[in-house]
Structures are given as C-alpha cells and as structure tokens.
Design a protein that fits this description.
The structure holds two protein chains of two kinds. Chain A is of the alpha/beta class. In chain A, about 25% of the residues lie in helices and about 15% in strands. In chain A, helix 1 packs parallel to helix 7 and helix 1 packs parallel to helix 12. The N terminus of chain B is likely disordered. The chains are: A alpha/beta, B alpha+beta. The complex binds flavin-adenine dinucleotide and iron/sulfur cluster (SF4).
C-alpha cells in the first residue's frame, strides 16, 4: 500500500470509497495514477458483517445528523433520517442489493421526449446511451452482472416465485430474476450466492459486488493507493487562481489534516457531495465550490418508490435468499397513456421482521397492525422504483442551525412529491397489488417510501454551464481539476437502480482524468 | 424506595396474559407461573404493570406471554434510572394513561384501555413506548421465533440448501 506525503500535490484525491469513488480510485490506479482515497468510515470487512438488521445498520450506516423538510412522507416518519446510506470503506455498496440495470435510450433525453412538464426541471443529459454503451459493458463485466457476459441468472427464491406467478397471470412478459451484481457462480475470485438473505446487511459470502472487497484491494495491489479510513473531509480548498489545491479532513485521532492534490474527485453520495461543496465556500466562491449556476444541491431525486407487501394464506418465507433477485420490467417503458411520464420497475424485496415492524406502516399500532406483523412468515414483498421528476426546489441545503461533531452545518434534505411522482406511485401500487392478488394474496399493504437509498441529481451534468454543475465527464464547469464522481451527477434519474450507471460513469471518468493529466490540462 | 406505595406482601395483577404478574419486594416483578421476572429500579410496580399492559395493547400477541413486553419496560426503567427526563416522561405519561382510563389502566377492559390509548396517541410518552416496542420488541429473538422469523443464516450456510425456493403450495402457473 502506498503512503503519500500530505504536501504531495501530485496525487489525485478521491473522497468517498463507495460505488463511484471506490471504482474511480481503482481505475485510476490501474492507469498508473497515484491516488489518496479519503473515507469517513472505518474499514469493516466481510467477517465483521452481521446478519442482524439493526446491528448492521449501527455498524455501517451513515448516522451523522441530517434534517428534512417538504411534503414527502419520509420527513414525517423519519425526520432525522432522510436517507439510508453507509459510512464505511465500500460505502453503500456494502448494504446495496445488487440490482444492475442500464438506462433506456430515451431516459437520457427526457426534456426532449417528455416535453414540458409544469414544475419539473427536466434536462437532457449531455450524453447518449450509445456513448455510454461500451462503458456499461465494462461495468457489467467488472461487477459480474447476471444475464450479461454469459453469466446465468440467479435461481428464483420463494418471493420471486410469487412475483413470477402473479405477474404471469396479470399478463406481464418481462419477468426474471434480475440483472444482479451477485455471483450466480464463482467469478473474479469470489464465490457464488449462498442465498443467505441478508444482502442489505453486507454479504457474508462476498458473492455480491462491493468496492470493499473488489475495487479497493485491486487498487491496493497496484501499490498506488493510499486509502485512509476514518478521514472525514470537511472542506475543499483552492489556490489564488481558483483551482482546487487540497482538502481539509479530520483523521481517526480527531486531528485536522490538509492533503494537497493535483485534482479532487468528490464521491460522497448525493447528500454529502453537495454539502461538502457548499461548506467549502470562500471569499472567491461565496456560494460554495462549482456553484456559479446555483445548481449545487438542487434537483435532488430519490426515485418514486414505495413497496407492496402482501399476506398469503400459507408460508412464503420471503426473507430466505437474495433480497432483490426478481423483476417485472413491463412498466419501465414510456407510455403516457398511463397518465404520467417515465416508467417504473417492480423488484422483489424483503425486510426482516425488525425492519418490517418499523417500515410496513410507520407509526401504526393496535391489533390489526400486530396481526399483520404476526403473519410475517406468510408475506411477500416488492419494491417500486420509478423515475421521479427533478425539481429545482427539491434540494440539499446547509442547515446552519445544526452542526455536526466537527462544527460543520448539517445537510437539510427538502423534497416535495411532484404530481407525476404521485400518479406513478399510485399506478404502481395498484399493479403490484394485482400481481400479488393473482397469486392469492389475502391482504395487501401499500408501504410508503423508506429513507432514500437512491440519492441523485444534486450536482447534475449539463451541456450548458448555466443548467448544471458538471460537464459530461463529471468535471466541474467552473473548476477544471474538480470532479464529481457519484450519483449526484445524474441529470435525471431514469427508472433503473442507479449504481451500474454510477460505476459506468466512474470508469469513463477515469479515462478522461488520465488523459487530461497526460495532456497537462489538469 | 421501589416498594414505596405498595404493600410488601405479594399481590397479583392481570395484564391479559394467561399468567398474572406477582409483585415481590425490592422492585422485582414476576409472572405468576414463573416464566419471567424483571427488576425495576425507578418505576413503581404499579407503573410497571400499566406499561406492560400498554405495551401489549400496542402490539398484542395472544401467543406471547408478558416476558418480552416486560423486557421493554425493564429497559425503559433502566433508561429512567440514568436520566431524570425519561423518568418524568414515563411517570407523567403513565399517570395520564391511568387517569384517562379512570384511575387504573391495567385493570380496565379493552374498550376503555383503547380509548385511553387513543387519547394519548402521538404524545411524547406514547411515542417513547411505541418506539421501544418497534425497535426492541420486534428485535427480540424470542419474539422472532414466535412470529416466524428465522434470523441470522450465514452461519448455517444460508438457505441454499435450506428452503429458499421451497414454496410448494403455489400452482405451477
Ligand atoms: C439498502 C440499500 C439497497 C440498495 N440496493 C441497490 C440496488 O439493488 N441497485 C442499485 O443500483 N443501487 C442500490 N442501492 C443504492 C446504492 O448503494 C448507491 O446508489 C451507491 O452506493 C451510491 O454510490 P456513491 O458512490 O454515490 O455513494 P456511496 O456508495 O454511498 O459512497 C459514498 C462514500 O463517501 C463517504 N463520505 C461521505 N462524505 C464524506 C466526507 N465528507 N469525507 C469522507 N468520506 C465521505 C461515505 O462514508 C461513503 O463511504 C441501495 C442502497 C441501499 C441503502
Ligand atoms: S443472498 Fe447471496 S448476495 Fe445476498 S447476502 Fe446472501 S450470499 Fe450474499
């Protein structure tokens, strides 16, 4: 493992070791670039993971204070927990489920295709599917996505069988066990899925791709990666010319350090990334870094989510086996006859009893709710993931009234549901319920959205610097050695789970950064 | 101290479970059939009984005895022992609940108790007990076993050979 000097200004500093930052670091190291990877969380390895929902949440989730506002249900049910993300080496790829879908072609051009939707701040990506396709292919190969690269699909568990049967009865055609970054057979030195059923708690078998035990050790093996866990970046600083020159972070001992850098890549996930840029305000950049457009923190997206849980007359044991290996894709295409723009996927989902109690119907009590939880063994579940509308006022701002342990203002996450989001959710609840009812469900719950697991859009890509924060390489329009490397780059959200696209963009960004460095452009 | 306001002799409180609760001296309460026992350090036994009854009314399972409910109350008491604010929240909350039920919540019939609960729903006290139930009761391995959740599976080799796809009642298509 490399060890670079704090004053070494030839290194590229990557902040955050999740899907974006972890992948980018490895790709850069493979190209011979020296990388300092700063990660706020600890290095917790596979053997430390626990098959226990609350214990794993306390072990890996991001628990620093955050606040909420807006009319979304999460602000009422979980006012201090707007999002479920992780703070650990590997970031949220430790807790993620592995669903890995490419965007559809039209989803890169929503302004053109959907037209003007009141209240929605739609914009076309400065990218096309054709441009990304070769990088998608690299990402799928890297992550070992099933149903790509001749990798077979995962076997269906009980929850999937319910979905498959019901979806068939309802007339859906594209129903399968998903494109999952989970080994259905041994690959890349990792074993195959043991159907443990705790994908959301860190995969104990390592079958599921996570930067923790793929990208990061591979980067370390190059001898070019200096990974510093428990290093929480509080500010990015710049030189007189306005280029970023280093980062200020608090290390494991609580000491404040400053690491110099040639270029800086922010991969802190879509709440912390804009927060860091905003907290890095200076005399030269009074509105925060990279924010001449005023778009840093705006257009926060989280997907139009919700879940359908149903009770069946007989046992299902939905929690056995892969959490999300099951999908119905028929509703993902654009079909405005349904009364809304965009589309949605239906994916199998299960929660253990502890999380089910907290999430099935937050705040509920009494005999009926207890009886529903008492039927836990007979439950099946699915998750709705659909495209939500970017709105300028759905945004991450600094809440200067609340400070974290380092004295930095915490992020406030404001989200109002758009009418389009609500219509889509209602449609999906109905269709999801029909699937379960066709398989014999006797009681159906429309479970409201959980704290956001997909956080997107707060430093969006744009052709025109006035419309967004970064260009099609994730490079800041304002400061050319400052990059954004996570889902906050997304111009719009698509109907698909975002991580495959985050990894794809990171691979592509690494090519660009290496090229710009060799040309001395940065 | 803990026995303040209560006779030292044993007596029985019904909380709806098959076994009643026996209050012993020294803050110790136990099931009349001996299935469980708990010790309260700050709350009074009668307050403990009201809380157990309330916890059960929030999330009632006839097949589960008072033991897992008592664990939640015991944990609340332990928190109250460390923090006066929690103690005040619980003592005042229990009093309001008892008052709303006409003096003795645990001794009333279900309709009266539900009315008293509804009158208190959403209060900080109510949310405190509710939150402890959601996060504690449903995280109790004894409760998992009763409600059909199998818990940790990695050490058993996952479900790959243990029924991840064993659903047999679903028609073939
Ligand atoms: C339960 C769950 C299931 C999911 N399932 C799926 C799925 O099936 N498919 C899918 O596509 N997506 C899924 N996701 C979402 C997926 O995890 C995220 O999209 C992805 O991990 C985001 O990558 P990222 O690089 O943007 O951020 P992250 O992976 O969250 O990484 C960000 C890292 O930055 C670190 N960091 C933040 N701020 C600082 C700072 N100031 N200084 C230093 N370090 C910092 C964090 O500690 C973290 O490690 C799921 C998420 C959850 C929670
Ligand atoms: S079900 Fe498969 S992917 Fe999920 S945690 Fe278990 S082994 Fe890992």
């Amino acid at each position: 493992m490399a060890k670079y000097d704090l004053k070494d200004d030839s290194v590229v500093v990557v902040i955050g070791s999740g899907a974006g930052g972890g992948t980018l670091s490895n790709e850069l190291c493979q190209k011979g670039v020296n990388v300092v990877l700063l990660e706020a969380g600890k290095r917790t390895e596979i053997q430390d993971f626990v098959n226990d929902e609350w214990a794993s949440f306390l072990q890996l989730a991001w628990l620093d204070p955050r606040t909420t506002s807006g009319n979304w249900r999460v602000a009422k049910d979980f006012p201090t927990l707007p999002a479920w993300t992780c703070k650990t080496v590997g970031g949220t790829t430790t807790h993620w489920a592995g669903a890995s879908l490419r965007f559809q072609e039209h989803e890169f051009r929503t302004k053109t295709v959907y037209g003007s939707i009141p209240g929605a701040n739609l914009l076309d990506w400065p990218l096309t599917l054709a441009e990304l396709a070769p990088y998608y292919a690299k990402a799928e190969d890297k992550m070992g996505v099933t149903r790509t690269n001749d990798i077979p699909g995962l076997p269906g568990n009980n929850n999937f069988k319910i979905m498959e049967y019901g979806a068939g009865k309802v007339g859906y055609k594209t129903v399968h066990t998903g494109r999952m970054a989970i080994n259905s057979r041994e690959r890349d030195g990792r074993g195959s899925c043991q159907q443990i059923g705790f994908c959301f708690q860190g995969c104990k078998s390592g079958a599921k791709w996570s930067t923790l035990y793929t990208e990061i050790p591979k980067a370390e093996a190059t001898g070019r990666l200096d990974l510093r866990p428990e290093s929480h970046v509080i500010k990015i600083v710049h030189d007189d010319a306005g280029k970023v020159s280093g980062v200020v972070y608090v290390d494991a001992s609580g000491a404040t350090q400053e690491q110099k850098a040639r270029a800086i890549c922010v991969g802190c996930n879509s709440i912390e990334s804009p927060r860091l840029l905003l907290n890095s305000e200076s005399a030269k950049y009074p509105d925060g870094l990279a924010n001449s457009s005023g778009m840093v923190g705006r257009n926060y997206m989280r997907h139009t989510t919700g879940s359908v849980y149903s009770i069946f007359p007989k046992p299902v044991h939905m929690y056995r086996g892969t959490t999300m290996a099951g999908i119905v894709q028929d509703e993902a295409a654009l079909d405005t006859r349904r009364g809304f723009a965009g589309g949605y996927e239906l994916e199998t989902l299960s929660l253990g009893l502890p999380f089910m109690a907290a999430f099935l119907e937050p705040g509920a009590w009494g005999r009926e709710y207890a009886a529903a939880l008492g039927s836990y063994a007979n439950m099946a579940g699915m998750w709705i993931v659909g495209e939500d509308m970017p709105q300028a006022n759905n945004r991450v701002t600094l809440n200067k009234g609340v400070k974290d342990r380092y004295g930095m203002p915490v992020p406030n996450v404001h989200y109002d549901d758009h009418e389009n989001d609500i219509k889509m959710r209602e449609h999906a609840y109905k269709r999801g319920a029909e699937i379960h009812q066709a398989a014999g469900a006797v009681q159906v719950f429309h479970t409201p959205p959980y704290p956001s697991t997909h956080n997107l859009g707060t430093n969006r890509m744009s052709e025109n610097p006035k419309d967004g924060v970064v260009n099609k390489w994730g490079q800041s329009h304002d400061i050319k050695n400052l990059f954004v490397s996570d889902g906050s780059q997304f111009t719009t959200g698509g109907a698909e789970n975002p991580t495959l696209t985050i990894v794809t963009l990171a691979i592509r960004q690494a090519d660009y950064i290496a090229d710009q460095m060799s040309k001395k452009e940065i | 101290m803990p026995t303040e306001g209560v006779d030292r002799r044993d007596f029985l409180i019904s909380t709806g479970a098959a076994a009643g609760i026996v209050i012993l001296g020294g803050g110790v309460m136990m099931a009349s059939d001996g299935a469980w026992a708990m010790t309260l350090s700050r709350l009074k036994p009668q307050q403990g009984a009201t809380l157990i009854r309330m916890a059960r009314d929030l999330y009632a399972y006839d097949a589960i005895d008072d033991g897992p409910y008592a664990k939640i109350v015991e944990a609340l008491d332990a928190e109250a022992a460390k923090d006066d604010k929690t103690l005040a929240l619980l003592t005042e909350g229990v009093k309001r609940l008892d008052d709303a039920a006409g003096g003795n919540y645990a001794g009333e019939d279900e309709a009266k108790r539900l009315a008293a609960l509804k009158a208190n729903a959403g209060s900080p006290f109510f949310q405190k007990v509710q939150g402890s139930m959601i996060n504690g009761f449903y995280n109790d391995h004894d409760v998992w076993a009763k409600l059909g959740y199998e818990g940790s599976s990695a050490e058993k080799g996952g479900y790959i050979h243990r029924g991840f796809d064993d659903i047999a009642w679903l028609p073939k298509s």
